[in-house]
Design goal:
Elements: H1 4-15, E1 18-26, E2 32-41, H2 45-54, H3 59-66, E3 71-81, E4 86-95, E5 113-116, E6 122-128, E7 142-150, E8 152-157, E9 161-163, E10 166-172, H4 173-176, E11 180-188, H5 196-218
Parallel strand pairs: 1-7
Antiparallel strand pairs: 1-2, 2-4, 3-4, 5-6, 6-11, 7-10, 8-11, 9-10
Helix pairs in contact: 1-2
Length: 219
């Protein structure tokens, strides 16, 4: 797959619509994990066979596209849902450095980058490559969604939605155009897992417990 999204769009051509979601957790040191979930409606058995032949719903083919000595594949699952006639694939991976995702064939054009910024800040970016909208494809029915949880304080970003330190970018095929770059500047938490409010909460709990024990002893 020269461009993973291009092959997904080919499947879209056969079926009429597709959804692609990429969820990523980035730790302060640049390591993290990712879950990719894409699915589509399969109108009939002929389309099911055509989509299956593309390989994007065959675990062995998916593994080949996501394998890298710098990335750990945790799980690859493909399944069909008869309740709504959809077919799905879910890929879960871990990485020690988000830049290492560039070594995955499926992300050959994604240009993952995490660089140092000013005042202990980090600048992250990812490129969403353009995809052809020819062959009568209705770009409004093709959606890509990128959700990033950043373990740090968000300084600036170009996400479409922000909920605290979780940023979401969502576009249809027409909006991608010649490609888009998603980016965020953030100040990493000092520890890999623990933001400051955890310490404040722990201190408050300790004070409450101490007060309770002191009062009980006095009684």
């Amino acid at each position: 797959m020269k461009n993973f999204l291009s092959v997904v769009v080919l499947a879209f051509l056969l079926t009429g619509c597709i959804n692609y979601e990429q969820r990523v957790l980035i730790y302060p040191d640049g390591s993290g994990n990712m879950e990719i979930h894409y699915w589509m409606h399969i109108p009939d058995s002929t389309a099911t066979k055509s989509v299956s032949n593309l390989g994007i719903f065959i675990p062995d083919s998916i593994r080949n596209e996501f394998s890298s000595p710098f990335v750990k594949i945790l799980d690859i699952t493909s399944y069909t849902d008869s309740t709504d006639s959809t077919i799905h694939s879910v890929i879960k991976i871990e990485f020690s450095s988000i830049d290492s995702l560039n070594t995955i064939k499926a992300f050959a054009q994604s240009e993952f980058s995490l660089k140092d910024g000013a005042s202990n800040q980090k600048i992250f970016s990812q490129f969403i490559p353009p995809v052809s909208t020819g062959f009568g494809i209705d770009g409004s029915k093709f959606y890509v969604k990128y959700v990033y949880e950043i373990r740090g304080d968000i300084i600036t970003h170009n996400a479409t939605v922000q909920q605290k330190n979780i940023l979401t970018w969502q576009y249809n095929l027409s909006e991608i155009g010649r490609g888009k770059t998603i980016s965020v500047t953030f100040k990493p938490y000092k520890l890999k897992e623990t933001p400051k409010w955890i310490y404040y909460l722990a201190g408050l709990v300790l004070l409450i417990v101490t007060f309770y024990l002191f009062r009980k002893k006095k009684d």
